[in-house]
Amino acid sequence: MNDEQSGFDGDGFESDPRRRLLLRALAAGWLVGGTGWAQADTFGAVPRKLPAGRSIFEIDGNVRINGKRARRDTLILPGDVIETGSDGRLVGVVGSDALIVRPQSRVEIGGAAGVARSFFRLVNGAMLSVFGKRDDLYEIRTPVATIGIRGTGVYTEADADKSYVCLCYGTAALTPLSRPEEQKLLTTKHHDAPMFLYRDAVDGRYTQPAPFYNHTDLELMALEALVGRTVPFAVPDDPYAAPRRDY
Question: For 101-138, b where at least 16 C-beta lie within 10 A, e where not — what string?
Answer without folding.
Answer: bbbebbbbbbbeeeeebebbbbbebbbbbbbbeeeeeb
